[in-house]
Every structure is written in structure tokens, then in C-alpha cells.
Description:
The strands form four sheets. This protein has a six-stranded mixed β-sheet, with helices on both faces. Strands 10, 12, 14, 15, 18 and 19 form a six-stranded mixed β-sheet that branches. It has helices spanning 29-35, 76-84, 116-128, 132-146, 161-172, 191-206, 218-224, 242-252, 257-262; strands at residues 14-23, 50-60, 65-69, 91-96, 100-102, 179-182, 210-214, 227-232, 235-240, 268-269, 281-288, 297-299, 304-311, 318-325, 330-335, 344-347, 350-358, 365-374, 381-392, 410-414. 23% of the residues lie in helices and 31% in strands. The protein contains nine helices and 20 strands. The protein is α/β, with parallel strands linked by helices. Helix 3 (116-128) packs across helix 4 (132-146) and helix 4 (132-146) crosses helix 5. Strand 6, helix 6 and strand 7 (210-214) form a beta-alpha-beta unit.
Amino acid sequence: MTAAHGPGEKRPILCARNLGKHYSLSRSRLRRLWRGPNAASRAAPHDEGLWAVRDVSLALDRGDAIGVIGANGGGKSTLLRLLAGTARPSEGTIEWGASVASLLDLGVGFHPLETGRENAETALILQAGMSRREARQRVAEVAAFADLRDFFDRPIRIYSDGMRLRLGFAVITLLSADVLVTDEILAVGDQGFQRRCEAWLDRFMGNGGTLILCSHDLSQVQRLCSHALWMSGGRARASGDPRAVIRAYRQSLGGSDDDALDQPLPGRAHAIGEVTNLPFEVVALALQDETGRDVTSVSEGATVLVTVDVHAPAAVPQVFIGITRADLTPIYGLASDMDGAVPQRIDGDRYRFRLRFSDLPLVPERYRLRAHAMDETGTRLYDTVELTFDVTGRPCDGGLVRPHVRRSSSIDAISPPS
């Protein structure tokens, strides 16, 4: 995301300056029509409505991803409709340097008496500019993506809202748009459909697509977006790095200091054992002593094992293990692609990654152990779980580790037991 461009600078793919949208809420509008054309001049300005969006500026380059967050009524949806071109601004300007596809109101233009197939063909002709012959050929791709089975050839008046959204999203995947505007619509559907949506979105962004996302799922914003914009009262309250903006937004909601430390975690943060249905999901995290017993407290210099299990139907995952102090000061991190320590398949789509810390050199303190599930390329973070543990021993005046606790100190990645 860049600032508004100037003379001679590279033009962004989308640029909005001092954007505003005003809605008239005055109940006297009809009365003014009854009283004649001069009634408008007698209306008080402060009775003429509200600004849903006011003085918002942003510029997006190709490949950017921005997440718009904030409480209900903050102006998020209105801003997205302005950026998508489905609403006209009352003030300010928007310049588009590329085609835009909107997932804000999927299915609004569908004819209720026509089948899903007929509506999909019409949409491909009108929105993608396809010939009728090409649309009839490509509609099979819509059918496969939406996976509506027999309902695809039934009138959409009998569709549920979720089925209409599946059909609309499937149509969007065949449009050659450079900018995608969406408002949590990716959460619709079953696990299989969500995986197809996620995979398509990965390809879209991997090919240089630009994403504008409005979501109450802050972990989704942090996982997908390189930039965040916090809207409040129709204005931009904060803008910048997603972690910093999300933290400021959470604190505005009255979160405690502990909440501010605990969140946001990278990826979809959740408790150990909670099912998220993500394509790459941490399903177990354990800290154990040498006997294999789960522990929450260990002695300085002890040997401990860390075991992470990841459910990954799509591909062999990459796993990242991190240790921080309780205040989030980083201490140690290791990715499974280091030294070729690949997670091992142990059952179906379940993979295991284990570390052995010999002669643990951490000083007495409380720590956080975090496990992150990443895709097979190691470029996209999906899931995060953590547990806390204590190290006991003689007090230390300072430092994060006590070097050379024993001469045999080592850290090894190990394979799962047979």
C-alpha cells in the first residue's frame, strides 16, 4: 500500500482521495416536496443526514492485500462498496487502474425463476464478456466449483442463501479481475468449499491479484493481509501493519493488558484441541519430559520434548516452533524446512514434528511455546496454538538464557517414534 501518487510516480492500481459518502436521513424530505420547491432552502443543515464515510484516502499497488476492520456501523461496508464501484461517493475521487470484481452482494442479479446453470451462463456473458458458446462450455467449471449437484439445474428461488453465495462465488472465479473486494463471504459453505475458496484466493494473490477484505475475523485479516485499516465513525482511525492496527483496535474494546499480549497471534489462533477446519491445522501441541509425561514446569537444564501434530489434507505442511518469554520477547524459533527435518505422516492426513531440547538453557522464568502450521511452501501461515510453561532453578540476575549449562547442550529435530 502506498500514498497517493504524484507527478511522474508509478500509478497505483486503485487510488482513493478524501473519500466520503453521505446519506440523507431527514424525514422532512417528503414534506418539502409537498410544500414546494423552495422548502429545501429552509431545511436545517444538521438535519440532513449522516456521513457513513468521511475523508478516507488510500492507494493500492498490484499484489497488495488490505483488511478493513472495526465495529458495526463504523463505515466498513460503505467504504468497500465505494471502492468496488457499486456506490457513488458524495465527495472525493476514486481512480481504478484495473478491473474490479466484488463479492459483496453475490447473487443479487440472479433471476429466481431460472436455474443455477442458466444464471451462471448469463453472468459469464454479461460480466466476463464471453460468447454464449464459450459460456456454455465454461459453466461446467462453475458447476464443479459450486458443487450444488442436482440443484444446479433447479430454479434458484428454492436455493438457500448459502447456495446462492456458492453459485455467485463460483462465477466470480472465472472473471478476469485484478482487484477482488469481499466482506467475509469466504466463510460460507462446508469445509470442502472453503478449501476451494482458499486455494483459489491463493492463486489469485499469487498471480498478483489485489485483495480488499472487510472482516470481523481478525485472524483472517492478519493471515491474508499485508495492511490493515481500522474504521470508526466513518473515518480511518488507524492504518498500517495488521498486527499493530489489530492490537490498537482490541485495546479500544477494553481488552486487558493480558489480552493485548495474547492477541493477535499469527494465523488462526485457538486453544489446543479446538477444531478450525483450516487446510493446515495444528491439532495437538505437547511439552513432555524424557519419560513422555506432559509437563508445565521443568527444571533449568532438563531435557524436554516438543511434539506438534498438524492435520493437512492438501499437502505436507511446514511447521514453525517458537519460544518467547511471557511478555513476548522472542528467544528461539525453528522451521521444519531447516536441515530437511520434514514432518512425518503418522495417520492419514495427520503429520507430526518433534523437537528434543537437551539441557534446556532457559533461565528461570515463565515462557510461551507456540506452534504454527504453514502451507507446503512455508509462505502462508494458517494456524497457531500455544501453551505456557515455567522453568525453575536458581535465580538469574539477567539475560534470556544461561549459556553452557552443560557441555553437552544441544537442540535436535527428531522423527516420530515408529
